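User: Last request for today: this protein with 2-hydroxyethylsulfonic acid, please.
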Amino acid sequence: MPKIALITGATAGIGEACARLFASQSYDLILTGRRKDRLNHLSAELSSSFNVQVRTIELDVRNKKDVESQLQALPEEWKQVDVLINNAGLSQGLDPIHEGNTDDWDTMIDTNVKGLLYITRAVSPWMVKRKQGHIVNLGSIAGKETYANGNVYCATKHAVDSLNKGMRIDLLPYGVRVTGIHPGAVETEFSEVRFKGDTERAKKVYQGYEPLVASDIADAIWYAVSAPAHVNINDLVIMPKAQAGAYYWHKDA
Ligand code: NDP
Ligand code: 8X3
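Assistant: Here's the final one, the structure of the complex with 2-hydroxyethylsulfonic acid:
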């Protein structure tokens, strides 16, 4: 029986790179995201290139009822999820706390924290029942350090870091592995989303050094998932060589 990975936010960046890597390793996939056209395109490409089965679910992780109903509606055989990658997430804005946009705060908290929880609440009982599975949570260097104007985004990723630990404790009796992945700067659509389509500002985030790319993070996730069954990789912090922390960079002059 092929293994199954459920990946949230598979329409771009790290989630899409994970979908490609797991398909190449013969996993069947459940891919979710809001952009249906991208899901359809990726699904067609991966199923034909790697001869795997791919199901897509057009899903906004903020919508609790939709998350519950769409995941519960999966056929039983697709509920045998071996790997859940809680990847869907975003940042909105980079403003000091006294000037922050409260709608942006809602979006980040609802997506990065509550969305991750809704998905986990739906999928983890399937793993508990089977006494096996692996949950991978996308945190960030922003969940290990707090940087200027990152306030609410950093808080959501600190919450993910804490939930990662909490999940590991609660799922311990059931043999479910839990891994936190904490990247530094990865060049994806992330900054374009953070700066709401301001591509010039987004591009500047990755200038003067070599940033990580999405496949670097997919490789790290695969390292954790493919570790021997008795091994749990708790936490990986992965940075570009030119970035030593949220504040320390070595950029070209
Ligand atoms: P991208 O913007 O390239 O991809 C984000 C993905 O999340 C998209 O597939 C998007 O799909 C999905 N998504 C966003 N909001 C929702 C939602 N409400 N419901 C469902 N899906 C959603 O960013 P990355 O690949 O870089 O980011 C992936 C994760 O990695 C995030 O959690 C991010 O915080 C984290 N991270 C990123 C870093 C970076 O530097 N890029 C560094 C550290 C962590 P769609 O829009 O189709 O719904
Ligand atoms: C994304 C990396 O440093 O922009 O989580 O917060 S950072």
